């Protein structure tokens, strides 16, 4: 396990499982920069957030990706509302092992999904770590040509026609499932529109893209792809409406 992966797991354990406000001083830098709509900059707002977590709060980690000084935690927050929230949390760490920056996207957990898969199940550990850059390049090209360029005629160039497991709750498995979902969303006035990809974070066969666009309203897209044999074979996501106001001036990206 890489140092950054071990670090982020220790940090989220002490902060979110142990609910220890003092862990903020151990794992969060003084100049902590926040992009989440849930908190302001710095240690103190985070300390207050941790101290105020309800008794039934629980954070479940599903997978972690490490890429340079960035770490992604794909997890579920329980006890924060009427339904659990599925989340992607992205942290930047300094050389002392403290978090200096944080981004996230949260979406409600849906029990009855079209594919029958949950929003979080599937493989959890990155493999093919020697092919990280090839996986990154494939997903970046897919994002540019298909997501931003909206050229769906190229889908089969990037997504496996044999195995494509879908974890978006409204889409079925396979290319046909993706195409049907896109058509349904367009009919609902929620055309899938990507404007820009801000981050691409990769480890082995896992690649996360952080993007902005529109889905009926301005949204933040976090898409996690798994690559095998040169094609995308699995997809998880969180689509979050972009709030009109934030408790800081850093933006969502």
TrEMBL record:
Domain of life: Bacteria
Protein name in the entry: SnoaL-like domain-containing protein
Region (Disordered): 109-132
Comp. bias intervals (Polar residues): 110-122
Location of the SnoaL-like domain: 12-102, 161-235
